[in-house]
Amino acid sequence: MKTECKPKRIEFQELGKREVVGKFNGGMITSDAGGLLLRETEKRIGIIKGFSQCFTDFRNQGHIEHTVSELLSQRVYGLALGYEDLNDHDMLRNDPLLAVLCEKQEPTGIDRKCNRDKGKALAGKSTLNRLELTSPDADEKSRYKKIVVHPEKVDHLFVDIFLKSHNKEPEQIILDVDATDDPLHGNQEGRFFHGYYKEYCYLPLYIFCQDHLLCARLRPSDIDGAKGTVEELKRIVPQIRKSWPNVKIILRGDSGFCREDIMVWCEENKVYFVLGLAKNERLKKKIKEDLVYAKLMYTTSGRASRIYDDFFYKTRRSWNRSRRVISKAEHLQKGSNPRYVVTSLSYEEADAAFLYENIYCARGEMENRIKEQQLYLFADRTSTSKIRSNQIRLYFSSIAYLLVSSFRRLALKGTQMSKAQCHTIRLKLFKIGAQITVTVRKVWVSLAEGYPYREIFLKIYKNLLKLPLPV
Description:
This protein is α+β, with helices and mostly antiparallel strands and 471 residues long.
């Protein structure tokens, strides 16, 4: 059978007397021209560059065509632009714009060594897959997979990026800690059924400071949700204090993190905490009168009523000391709704109402950050068989999140999209059609004239020009 060389016609419904015919023969056209803004951001803050330094490449450098930095850039930019699967890269490797983002000196791929790779500047899925599947003990003698990640360096990088994002030491920072479910649909290592989520899943642990990601640790789900928190704090807090010795650090979490070992560690290391406290009958008795009065207020006004109180409380067995507890006696249409928070902050630092409403309740913003990474930067694409390789995938997603989050914080400042979520940023700013023309001296990117967010795009570009390039 002869190969069909002519592009196949796609015949759509007519426009009056005119035929509407499509063909995949437009030449070098990209749908991701806005990714150039991400590249400008990366040039100034070097997140992917720092990430590439967390790997050791044991390959023979004289025989390779894709450096570690180029491979990581391809993977991270792909996630940021909405391509969650490795399979996508068998077509994306033809995209000259993505090749520009990855710093390929010949974005058309005409300089590739093998004839089968001519015109494909980037790596295919199999080459990229080796980043995830390389054994931690690989070396020069390994046969195929020779690019080894060092998790401790990646963990250090997350905190280092956070520290470098500040021009001076802040007076106070709040570390938000939470766990979430990562649904599994195969027989991955560490796969367990979780009764609360009612599914087979991983249970990753996240730590954020505002929109800065400090920790993304993949864990099996047959554990307490707070397990490993102290170990993460033991490395994060000293790293922060090395640069900011006087900063006040507050740990914030829901009742799943109200654990004695976490509170004791915080008290011994001068880290304050604001943690949810699960209700019980003893606590209800403490605020019995408040609950009655809150119900009376609701009956009188017909509106939600709440009364805050402040007292010291000690469990019968699990706590080694009395601690300050904030109570909220609330009555709603559905009935009584008591809530409790335990804290090491004094009354002088925060009264009951302020601590609950302005400090504790603000932790809900962290859930939006987890949602962004899980849903829009594909942190849940943990489908390899080993938990270690899935952790590496989580690292890729985390770096993509840090890059887009930095872009939002630095480039979108002063625009109507300064608080937009990652998927909105991608849809409105990165997904731009453009024709690519590569000459000897220039790469021309002819953006779509009908692009509706041109003015915002130009303002963002001006914002990026104000940021200094590294020397």
